[in-house]
Design a protein that fits this description.
Elements lengths: L4 E2 L5 E2 L1 E5 L28 H12 L5 E5 L9 H9 L6 E6 L4 H11 L3 E5 L5 H8 L4 H14 L4 E7 L8 H11 L2 E6 L17 H11 L3 E3 L10 E5 L5 E5 L12 E4 L4 E3 L8 E2 L1 H5 L4 H13 L19 H4 L2
Parallel strand pairs: 3-4, 3-12, 4-5, 5-6, 6-7, 7-8, 8-11
Antiparallel strand pairs: 1-2, 9-10, 10-11, 12-13, 13-14
Helix pairs in contact: 1-2, 2-3, 3-5
Length: about 325
Amino acid sequence: MSEPLVDSFGRVHNNLRISVTDRCNIRCFYCMPAENVQFMPRADLLSFEEMERFVRICVGLGVNKVRLTGGEPLVRKDLSKLVAMIAAIEGIHDIGITTNGILLAEQAQELWDAGLRRINVSLDALDPVKFKEITRREGYEKVLEGIQAAQRVGFDPVKVNAVSVRGMTESEIVPFGEFARKTGAEIRFIEFMPLDADNAWERDKVLFAHEIIERLSAEIMPLIPIPDQNPHAPATEFVFQDGVGRIGFIASVSQPFCMNCDRFRITADGKVRNCLFSLEETDIRGLLRGGGTDSQIAEAVRSSVAAKWEGHQINTAKFIQPNRPMYSIGG
């Protein structure tokens, strides 16, 4: 292996997120427009073979973790084949996926059989009416079926990602706490971030992690931090005082974890981004399809990571929201 991927702040990057599509079967307001979404031409999306080659090159740079995202990754046909291709690469120790769960029940077994071992399901409300308000589509029961199917085939824990929005999801806090205790799923509350397609984000709409901790502790029982946590993990994890029910918090706005970040990503159309909030991208698809060598692609990745900024600047007047909304970047 060559020298590891290190940026100018000394952060080592071993965690690659791959968006496999920008298409999705729901329309969450914090991610996509409600209607008339302009998706990328299919020819612009990287093929599985191109993704596999890119992962192999990145493994040579120290990458050993991969997470597949979208859009909704499970709408990409035969996704389990890509999982199997990546799982076969020597040096990859961890493959995960983030999905909205609607198609999960029918794919959970084949994903497990292909080598997937970690799964995050996006579900922002346990109230079906609130679910439809947020997603602007049907599908609530299918998501619950997907979570149950994933647990049945062996995924443990299934992590459930819930975006927290002030004025909208306060009523979901305690039900999610009880859901964690009853089902064994790990709930991860995510602070609402400025990546929505409608540019409607306001700081006043962020429901902060400390408020959720206080509410759960008061209405269920105290939450206790889990010891010896991975400093590079985006979530700070807690467990209820009696040891039943794990809750995580991704406090990207109130408690940025940028200085411990070990992640970079490639979009479905083959652009490397060194941060979710990047304003610049590095074109890898052009190299993959234009005769670029592995060493040229590796150098492009190395240059992108080297240029990573200190942090996302959400809490400063300097912050500029990326031109791409979340579904186009990759979750």
